[in-house]
Amino acid sequence: MKNATSYHVSDTGHYGEFGGAYIPEMLYANVEEIRTRYLDIIAEPSFQEEFNSLLKDYVGRPSPLYLAKTLSQKHGAHIYLKREDLNHTGAHKINNTIGQILLAKRLGKKRIIAETGAGQHGVATATVCALMNLECIVYMGAVDIVRQAPNVARMQMLGAKVVPAESGSKTLKDATNEAIRDWINNAETTHYIIGSAIGPHPYPDIVTRFQAVVSEEIKWQLEGKTGKDHPDYVVACVGGGSNAAGAFYHFLHDERVKLILAEAAGKGIDSGHSAATSILGTKGIIHGCMTLLMQTADGQIVEPYSLSAGLDYPGIGPMHAHLIKSGRATVHAATDDEAMMAVIELSRSEGIIPALETAHALAILGRIKFKSDDHIVVNLSGRGDKDLNTYLQYIEDHNISL
User: Fold this and answer.
1) Given a cut of 50, is residue 1 above it in pLDDT?
2) What is the pLDDT of residue 355?
3) Residue 220 to residue 242: CA distance in whole angstroms
4) 381 is annotated as an active-site residue
5) Residue 5: pLDDT above 90?
6) Which helix or strand (DSSP H or E) is residue 285 part of?
7) Angle at Cα 205 formed by Cα 243 and Cα 200, nearest 5°?
8) Which residue in 63, 82, 84, 115 is the catalytic one?
9) Active-site residue 274, yes or no?
10) In the annotation, is 93 catalytic?
C-alpha cells in the first residue's frame, strides 16, 4: 500500500513543511550546481564502484551488528548495537565524507571546508582530504577545540587547518557560520562538506543518502541473525541528525519499525541550559533550511547547551523535524547526568566506551516499555576516546568511585 505521507525529500527540496534552500545570492550558483548534478553523479557506476570499494577496504564496512547481552537482560528485550564506532576514524561520519569527497572531485573542486562540533566530522573530513590530496580547512568552536583536544590533534596530524570560531557560544553553530562565510568568499574553488543532515537543499538529502548504508546493513545483518528483516525499534541520538538519518533511512516507510530520537536535555529541559531542540524549538530558518530551532519570540537564536559537543546545536535536520511533527518518530531528551551514567554503564557492562553523543541514545532506553520478543537496534555512532578528558573531569567533579 502506498504511504499517504512521504518522508523522503520532495522535488522542491522539502520534507513536509521543512527543508528548502535559504541561501545568500553569492552561493546560489554553487548550490544550484550541486542540486542539478548530485543525483546523476552518485548514480554513475564508476562513482558507486569507488564509493563502495572505499567503504569496504578503507572504512572497514560492514560495521558489526552486536547483540548486547547485558543491556538486553536489563531491558527485557533483544538489544543490538550497530558498531559505527569501529569505522576508520571512529564514527559514522566517514560514510558521508567518503561520498562527498568523491562528489567534490567530480565537481572539479580543489579546496574543502567543513565545520565540526565533537570533532568526529572534522577528523573524517581531514582524513578523506589527505587520502585525495586536497586542501582542508575545518572550522570549530573555540570552546569545542578545548573540550575535544584529541580530535583537534588528529585533524592537524592529517594536514588540516583548524580555524577557531570565536563568536557567540564558540560552539558548533558558530563554526557553521564561519564555514558559510568562507564558502561565500571562495565559492568557485571550494566544496563545503556539511556533516549533519542539515543545510540548504540538497545537503540533507546528500548526507542521508551516504549514511543510508547503515540501515541497509541493519536489514540484512538482523535477518541473518534472527530471520527477521526489520527491527521493532531503531534508536539514535540527534543533533543535526546524520547518524539517525542513516539508521532510519530504509525503515522510514516501514510502519512496523518505531523510530526513536534522543536529543540533549543538557542540565534539564526547563533549566535554560539545554539543547532539546525539537521539544523547545519552533519553526524557523537556520543555516539554509526551514526546520525546528531554539529561538526567541523575535527570531533570535537561543544559545544551546550540552556537555556533548556534537549535540550542542540549536537546530535539527529538516527530515527529523518532519518525522517528529508528522508523528512518525518519537523524541526523548536525556540530560548530561543521564548520558554520563549511560557511558559508565556501557563501559562496565559491555566493554565499550561510547561517544558522549551516542550515550544519549543509550540513556533513554529505560523510558520505553519493550516486549520480550522486541528487537531493538541502537546506532552506536561513535567511540568515546575523544571524550575521555570530559569523562574523567565529570567523574572527579561528581566524586564517582570507579
Assistant:
1) no
2) 96
3) 21
4) yes
5) no
6) strand 282-286
7) 105
8) 115
9) no
10) yes
